[in-house]
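Please, structure for the following, as tokens.
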Amino acid sequence: MSDRRDGAPEAALDAEDAADSAAAGSADAASPDGGHAAAAPSTHTVRLELVDEPGQLLAALHPIADNGGNLLSIYHERGNKTPRGRIPVEVDFEATPERFEEIVDALRSEGVNVMQAGTERYAEEVTLLLFGHLIDTDLSDTLSRIEACESASVADVSLAAPQGTEEVSSARLRLEARAGETDAALAAVRELADEKELRVVEPLTGVDA
């Protein structure tokens, strides 16, 4: 197994131990003891978003190994965080098309946020504005609940609170949606905004997000 990592956040992702453990598991899971006549495996890439805590990488790699994936490389972007303050991790592995779908389903079942899986998923972008008491209504919760909608991922957030965090503020969100699912993603944002009494202006066009 090759490893494209160039460093790890302190006390966060122990990539070497995680990769070694999961690689051993993937070898066992991929053994042809079930007699399956499967298509030839090919290389797949998944991009994950992990909490910056010890053991999270290993927990994310287990569903890959347990479902027949042969780990090739792990790369996490040192010093880079997603809009929710989590760590983006890219994992390459070999698997048949059928097992690849099982692996993606297993990752999501374990609560791992899959931001991209192979050639899937987030093919459309939309930028919108949220206005209201974003801080008082817990902006982190708002972003997490948007992410929980499988149709979209929050690619970028820009918060403006010129009158202080206790007053009305605004946030520009750039969402990446699966092909054909932008409307579903926007509907989820509108529903959440109604619940939190926020105003949505969408979509923005002609804006560099």
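The first strand starts at residue 42 and ends at 50. The mean pLDDT is 76.
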